[in-house]
Design goal:
Length: 783
């Protein structure tokens, strides 16, 4: 792994030396968070070339920027430690030992560094930081300083710095220009989104308040400093963008440690169900913390519960085991079950990549993890789409259609946030205009949630409003032509090809979407007529309108089985120039053919990522195995995988159609995309969709899990290097624990209720609450 050493424990990611060239990478990898906020793993004292960041879910602003940014919020880590007047940092002093480790089990980042002073004496600086999973408004930092071989004085200053800016854009430089790691971020223009409005102290608790300039969100941080040894002096500092505390220890004996604990409270005016001034709430958060240790212990207990429900254990391959847990950790810190107005950006809360915007990644790549392990969080993520329904209506109206159309890139309002051009202005992005399938993807996620949880109340309420409003958009967007209707000038998941007609993925998803909207309406009429009246009053849906949805679905051009054969990705795709992929990089990732890039593949059959194969993945029960195999074998060699979403889909479909060798290669590409930094841009933030995809490869691919048709199915096909695969899924309010081997499996159902019938290797298996049932594969068994 690039820069990363995995301990023997499959729960720890470690950095074992200081390398400034790898520092930005580790800032992403070592992000701590709790779904309400994420803080990059920057050094507390910073270094030249640092890219720190704290991001609060849902806090966006468009001031001083061409499109809305996820705001780089006040920095709660800023710390300066001096010994005998010498500042401890990697740029000022020589480092003889450096070790950091992220404990995935507890969400705690540990640091241990030994500096050498100009006098030759050694000083150990240790820190521990966490974002509480018990109280999502709370963070903590512990600072420990030890003079290893001399007596001396120690000064520790730490505070909250609100002088934070977002990266705006890199000016255009000649092709091939590369900047040194120490200066590259200095070359970027910056956007200002915060204005400090107040600061001060309530006793020893400091506070600072800010205001997002355009979106008008008030943000408040509060800070309390606790010492284990009475300091010689204590000074409180404040100015318009900073509050802090500095403590002096004049006589520190050799081998004696000084510990300072920092408790941080965070509050904003957009927090759900929160009353009162954010400053008062932030101060109250700090006041109610008994001690750093007590807060950490409570958070670790919450993490234990999360892992009990979410762990995916690989036995026999420690590297794969670590990669899976690393993916799950970052998924867990990216989502907030307590806030149904926020979602997960493409880089989670770990960096500024894609400006924190939300894509279809959540519904297709990440939601399955939450749906099957943390259904309350899945419900909150879907709540974001209901919350932004007014914005989706506005996007549709802006494009001359009725109903609701979800934007390709979304922020806090649900309006379109995708930029029109590349930063250099040379190329136009048509995703914002043509990649319409996101609207059907949202509908897909809503129906999947209802199927897995059995919560028809949600489907008939908020879910139905979204399904019906978006169905209106599709009917309006379709173009009649003889005895059928088409979708013209669209872009499918493969973003190399714009302005295409009848993209197979989009059309089939839309047809399915309309069919589900009709089915849901008919169920409501029969099972919940009062809700039908409510929906008629709320959004004006009528039976005549629903019949129009049904007719449109029946005549929309879309690929159907049986005997579909190889499906043409869009009208005219088969006539495009075939350009073979012949070169691969050191991470086994395809290279663009000579002379080609993202914007010059329109006339070729090359794909950025799966399109028809994505349809096979999302709708496995609609296409026969021969059809899925034929399309996988045709499109897989044409795919360049220039999206981190791509490898996981090819792994899962490859396993379903009998290509385990390539599936294992694709698993490696997905699982190690950030641990190995195999796309070279992990410093910008996590590839969080790939994390969701990695979990899906393990469970849906190697575990053979399908949760469709009202039943759980398992068809394990483990890699040869894996001895066993163990995970838990939530199914209609109960847990099913799966322990899978190559030729045997065990299952346990937990939760009161009637027996549950699952299928394993094609065999029906009956589970009852609390009992463990073993299954052995037979030579004729199939999934």
């Amino acid at each position: 792994m690039t820069g990363v050493l995995a301990d023997r424990s499959t729960w720890t990611v470690s950095e074992n030396e200081w390398d400034p060239r790898q520092a930005n990478y580790f800032e992403t990898v070592f992000t701590v968070g709790n779904g309400r906020l994420g803080t990059r793993g920057s050094m507390e004292e910073r270094h030249i070339g640092a890219l720190p960041g704290t991001f609060l879910a849902g806090v966006y602003d468009a001031y001083d920027a061409p499109v809305t940014d996820l705001v780089n919020a006040p920095d709660w880590l800023t710390t300066e430690v001096s010994v005998g007047g010498h500042r401890l940092d990697h740029d000022s002093l020589r480092t003889v030992e450096h070790h950091r480790s992220l404990d995935l089990r507890t969400g705690v980042l540990h640091r241990d560094t030994v500096f050498v002073l100009p006098t030759g004496h050694r000083v150990r600086l240790q820190t521990l930081r966490f974002a509480s999973m018990t109280d999502r408004d709370l963070c903590g930092l512990r600072i420990v300083v030890t003079l290893l071989d001399h007596d001396g004085s120690v000064t520790i200053g730490t505070g909250v710095d609100a002088h934070c800016r977002n990266l705006e854009g890199l000016p255009v430089y000649p092709d091939g220009t590369v900047f040194d790691h120490r200066r590259k971020w200095d070359k970027w223009a910056r956007s200002t989104h915060l204005r400090a409005t107040d600061h001060g102290f309530v006793g020893d608790i400091g506070y600072i308040e800010c205001h997002t300039i355009d979106s008008a969100v008030d943000i408040a941080y509060a800070q309390r400093i606790d010492e284990d040894t009475p300091p010689s002096r204590r000074r409180l500092h404040q100015h318009h963008e900073y509050i802090g505390c500095e403590v002096d220890f004049d006589h520190v004996p050799a081998e004696c440690s000084i510990t300072v604990d920092k408790i941080i409270g965070v509050a904003t005016s957009r927090d759900p169900h929160a009353d009162g001034r954010p400053r008062n709430r932030a101060v109250t958060t700090v006041e109610r913390v008994e001690s750093f240790t007590a807060a950490l212990t409570a958070s670790e207990a919450a993490w234990s519960e999360l892992w009990e429900a979410s762990d995916c254990e690989v036995v026999g391959d420690d590297r794969a085991a670590l990669a899976l847990r690393f993916a799950i950790y970052h998924l867990l810190i990216a989502a907030n079950p307590d806030d149904a107005t926020v979602n997960i950006g493409a880089k989670s809360l770990s960096g500024e990549g894609y400006r924190g915007h939300v894509f279809w990644d959540t519904e297709i790549m990440m939601l399955p993890f939450f749906l099957l392990t943390q259904p309350r969080t899945a419900r909150a993520l879907l709540g974001y789409r209901f919350h932004t329904l007014p914005g989706a209506r506005a996007v549709s109206a802006e494009n001359g259609t009725t109903g609701a159309r979800y934007p390709w890139e979304s922020a806090d309002t649900g309006l379109e946030e995708c930029p029109q051009f590349t930063p250099d202005g040379k190329n136009r992005f048509y995703t914002r205009d043509e990649e319409l399938h996101v609207t059907a993807d949202v509908a897909y996620a809503i129906v999947r949630y209802a199927e897995v949880t059995g919560e028809t109340g949600y489907l008939y309420g908020e879910g139905a409003q979204v399904l019906f409003e978006t169905a209106r958009f599709w009917v309006d967007r379709c173009t009649p032509g003889g005895d059928h209707v088409s979708l013209l000038t669209v872009m499918g998941p493969d973003e190399f090809h714009s302005h295409v007609d009848n993209n197979a993925f989009t059309n089939r998803m839309v047809r399915w979407h309309l069919e589900q909207a009709v089915k849901t309406y008919k169920e409501i009429v029969t099972l919940d007529p009062a809700r039908q009246v409510e929906l008629a009053d709320t959004i004006g849906v009528t039976a005549d309108e629903v019949r129009r949805w049904e007719r449109t679905a029946q005549v929309l051009v879309a690929p159907v089985d049986p005997d579909a054969g190889v499906i043409e990705q869009f009208d005219g795709y088969f006539d495009l120039q075939v350009v073979p992929i012949t070169e691969f990089d050191h991470n086994d990732m395809p290279r663009y053919p000579v002379g080609r890039d993202h914007f010059t593949c329109e006339d070729t059959s090359l794909l950025k990522q799966p399109d028809v194969v994505m349809l096979m993945f999302m709708m496995p029960d609609l296409y026969s195995l021969p059809t899925r195999r034929a399309n996988y074998e045709f499109y897989e060699p044409r795919t360049v995988h220039k999206s981190s979403l791509s490898p996981s889909i090819h792994a899962i479909v490859g396993l379903q159609v009998g290509d385990p060798e390539k599936a294992e290669r694709y698993f490696a590409r997905s699982a190690y995309v950030d641990l190995d930094n195999n796309q070279g841009n992990t410093e910008e933030g996590m590839h969080i969709a790939s994390a969701g995809g990695t979990w899906q490869i393990a469970t849906h691919g190697f575990g053979g899990l399908l949760a469709t048709g009202g039943q759980l199915r398992f068809a394990p096909a483990l890699p040869s290097s894996w001895d066993r695969l163990r995970f838990t899924v939530q199914w209609r309010g109960r847990r099913v624990h799966a322990d899978l081997g190559h030729t045997d499996a065990e299952f346990r159902l937990v939760g009161v209720g009637p027996p549950e019938i699952i299928r394993v290797w094609g065999q029906p298996v009956t589970l009852t609450d609390g009992d463990t049932v073993g299954v052995t594969a037979t030579p004729s068994a199939s999934g």
